[in-house]
Design a protein that fits this description.
The protein is of the alpha/beta class. Helix content is 44%, strand content 24%. The chain has a 5-stranded mixed β-sheet with strand order 5-4-3-6-7. A two-stranded antiparallel ribbon has the order 1-2.
């Protein structure tokens, strides 16, 4: 079976992350929010934190901590304080329900696409924040890129992951100046605490045996263990990769994919 092209990849991953282990989403949201607040405060001050500049109009003076309730739990938000005047992110703390949903979407998009200055600038503007310089966005993107990379390569120590589901999506990406299609392989599992967790994402030129085998070998190397059942479509390469890397696990064909195959 070929990669699924009937759903929006960004919406799919947003749903997966929103329902994943709250500790993982809470960490990503906290990092993103605090990095964004720091960049916004630098913009108000006219210079980066700790930098000497003739364009500086204000200085930072510590932080005040505020709790922000989200679907992933309560976040400790560090709001920068200024020596002159006040800085308050009303886009976040006064309309937190709307902003929290937007932030979750931004984090999911960063996870899926990677972080670049241009993308980060567009994502920040979706929250209604303008005035950040390119250098501030660049620094912020670099910090978040490291956070996303750490999340994507983290050890899988929340196991055993008794149940695992695997699927592939087709996405269009820009590569060497042209737009091409790639297969994005996604694996989710149920961890020891009963939460659904995004285990990993892997890209390949096409959904093939080699691609799935490489993906599952990476998951196993990162600590995937205790798998009793894997649910997926009937792609031959995927089934072979499961048997090669998880020999003690059973395999079950996804009912949704099976029903789709039966449709005329």
């Amino acid at each position: 079976m070929t990669a699924n092209t009937s759903i929006d990849p960004a919406a799919f991953l947003h749903e997966q992350l929103a329902q994943a282990s709250p500790d993982l989403m809470r960490e990503l949201l906290g990092t993103f929010i605090n990095a964004l607040l720091s960049a916004q405060a630098d913009s108000v001050c006219g210079a980066r934190y700790g930098a000497r500049s003739d364009e500086r109009t204000n200085r930072r003076n510590g932080y005040r901590h505020r709790d922000l309730d989200t679907r992933a739990g309560t976040l400790d938000v560090a709001v920068p304080k200024l020596r002159e005047g006040t800085f308050f992110p009303d886009w976040l703390l006064e309309r937190h329900r709307r902003a929290e949903a937007a932030l979750t979407t931004v984090v999911a998009t960063c996870y899926l696409l990677g972080v670049s200055t241009r993308r980060m600038d567009k994502l920040v503007r979706t929250l209604g924040i303008t005035g950040l310089s390119k250098s501030q966005v660049s620094v912020m993107a670099k910090d978040l890129d490291e956070q996303v990379a750490a999340f994507r390569t983290r050890p899988l120590h929340e196991g055993p992951y008794t149940f695992v589901a695997a699927d592939a999506l087709t996405m269009k990406v820009r590569e060497a100046g042209r737009v091409v299609k790639v297969a994005v392989m996604v694996a989710t599992g149920v961890n020891a605490e009963g939460y659904r967790e995004v285990l990993g994402i892997h890209t390949a030129t096409t959904e093939s045996s080699a691609g799935w085998l490489s993906f599952f070998r990476d998951l196993a190397a990162r600590g995937l263990s205790g798998v009793a059942l894997v649910t997926s479509d009937a792609h031959a390469g995927l089934v072979e990769a499961i048997g090669a890397t998880l020999p003690t696990a059973s395999w079950q064909r996804c009912r949704t994919h099976y029903a789709a195959n039966l449709m005329p």
